[in-house]
Write a structure and sequence with these properties.
This protein is α/β, with parallel strands linked by helices. It has a single domain, classed as Alpha-Beta Complex (Spore Coat Polysaccharide Biosynthesis Protein SpsA, Chain A), CATH 3.90.550.10. A 7-stranded mixed sheet has the order 3-2-1-4-6-5-7, with helices on both faces. Helix 2 packs across helix 5 and helix 2 packs antiparallel against helix 8. It is globular.
Length: 233
């Protein structure tokens, strides 16, 4: 760890059937949706691990619920700290993660969702550099195609208002976050848009994206093959 190290918190939940990816589960079944969620977590952790050395990231897993540590650790496959964090409301939980990370990594802190299996590691490196170069008002955001975001990074507690209650998991999250940032005088750097997989129609995008990137997301590729094999059997 150096003075330039950026803290990265991977936010994770155990991929349990009936709880994980419920919108997907309505179309493909609870077991298949949980299998995909587990694969997304595995590939997301691998992406963070690939970026950690070149980008000087210190990675930790922040998980909920309290009994989920063993399940998540078995999938992450990295020797990272496992930290329980649940403030009830999503924004409060995210800010708690960032606040804890900033206390140990004043160069910057980021949180990333665990369902982004195709993020290039270089994008995490770009996010880290934005925070290092920025001042206390710097914010970095990775937009997602559904109108939200999959990663956000901050330099100081001046960003706390971005995590006040809002209609999370809706198409207006990014726009509201940018509005709040402007009101607080924060400087936002937008990373390349990414795509998470929440809805049944997202699976078509996932198949195409995997076909275009043959070496990427091996766990997700295998889970999708299991799904498609089952559908065809």
């Amino acid at each position: 760890m150096t003075k330039r190290t950026i803290g990265l918190g991977l936010m994770a939940k155990p991929p349990r059937p009936g709880i994980a990816k419920t919108r997907l589960a309505a179309a493909i079944g609870a077991a298949a949706a949980a299998d995909l969620a587990a694969a997304f977590l595995m590939d997301g952790a691998a992406i963070a691990a690939a970026a950690a050395g070149p980008a000087d990231l210190c990675c930790e897993v922040f998980y909920r619920p309290a009994d989920g540590a063993a399940e998540i650790a078995a999938l992450v496959g990295q020797d990272w700290p496992m930290v329980f964090c649940d403030r009830g409301e999503l924004g409060a939980t995210m800010w708690d993660v960032l606040f804890r990370l900033l206390a140990r990594h004043p160069a910057g802190a980021m949180v990333m969702g665990a369902d982004l299996p195709l993020v290039p590691p270089a994008v995490l490196g770009e996010a880290a550099e934005v925070l290092r170069r920025g001042g206390e008002r710097a914010v970095v955001v990775m937009p997602s195609a559904d109108g939200g975001y999959g990663l956000i990074g901050v330099r100081s507690a001046l960003a706390a208002p971005l995590f006040a209650p809002m209609a999370w998991s809706t198409a207006g999250v990014l726009a509201e976050t940018l509005r709040r940032a402007g009101a607080e005088g924060l400087t936002v750097h937008l990373l390349p848009e990414q795509h998470d997989v929440d809805e049944p129609e997202d699976l078509a995008w996932l198949r195409a994206a995997l076909a275009a990137a043959p070496g990427a997301a091996p766990a997700t590729r295998a889970a999708l093959a299991r799904l498609d094999g089952g559908a065809g059997g």
